[in-house]
Amino acid sequence: MFACALAGIIGRPLTFLAIFWPANAVLLGLFLRFPTLKNIGGWLGAFIGFMIADLITGNTFLVTLFLTLANLSHALVTLLLIHFFKLDYKQYNKGLTFLYLFGISAFGGCLAAASFACLTVPHLPNTFMSMDRIWIDFGMWWTGEILNVIAFLPIVLAIPNQNTIQNYFQEYKQQPLQTEILLPFFRRCTLSDPYPFFYWPRGNYVSDRCIDLSSVEL
Asked: Does residue 176 belong to any structural domain of this protein?
């Protein structure tokens, strides 16, 4: 989370929200793909990663705290809605499951994060969000979250687990060597003659050419 948040902070313009913010979508995807991370330690690690990434870039503690809570609310609200609707997110690549997952995230977690941030951050001291352009910030936050969900959530959900990787290598090792395909290839490589005029058996070619040239000169 620290690396994803830091990438988004560095890439955003000064006094503006970050359009490239993969951290929330990656956090949601990790909790969905690896349910063992969905515990107190996982949430605490995400919280610390968000806080450190924002603090080392010069933001104040209070603004960083509320921005972190807003970011965490995206994953929290989406997970609660998935549990409420009993969505089988593991079948995200079948049927309309990903469309339902995207709808829950867009109108649940993304909307909750943008609403929480716009209701709290503009009222904090030393904030970069103002009430004069609150609706612009709200729209940028919400649409930015949706774009990042579309871009990064499917990638994280497609990460193979440890058992899948082990099974893949075991099946690869058990496959017999396909000699009927490799032997003709090596035979052609060893018997091929890419430069025939450099070899002695083809010397007649050179001598014939020399004779032809001498006859032309005469």
From this structure: no
Digit-coded pLDDT (tens) for 202-212: 444 444 444 44
pTM: 0.74
As a whole number of angstroms, the distance between CA 14 and CA 112 comes to 24
Q: Is residue 100 part of a domain?
A: yes
Kindly report, residue by residue over 28-58, the tens digit of the pLDDT: 999 999 999 999 999 999 999 999 999 998 8
Give 58-69 pLDDT, tens digit per residue.
Answer: 889 999 999 999
Number of domains in the chain: 1
Is 217 within a domain?
Answer: no
Token duo for residue 107: 């109108």
- Asked whether 72 and 116 are in contact (CB, 8 A), the reply is no
Ramachandran angles phi, psi of 23, nearest 5° = -60, -45
Contacts of 209 (CB under 8 A, 6+ apart): none
Give CA 113 to chain center in angstroms: 21
Q: Quote the distance between the C-alpha of residue 155 and its chain's center.
A: 5
The whole-angstrom separation of Cα 197 and Cα 27 is 64
In a domain, 111, yes or no: yes
184 has a pLDDT exceeding 70:
no
* pLDDT mean over 128-135: 91
Nearest CA to 67 among 8, 123, 21, 113?
113
Complete DSSP assignment for 164-207: HHHHHHHHHHHSPP-HHHHHHHHHHHHH--S-GGGSGGGHHHHH
Query: In which domain, by residue range, is 115 found?
Result: 1-161
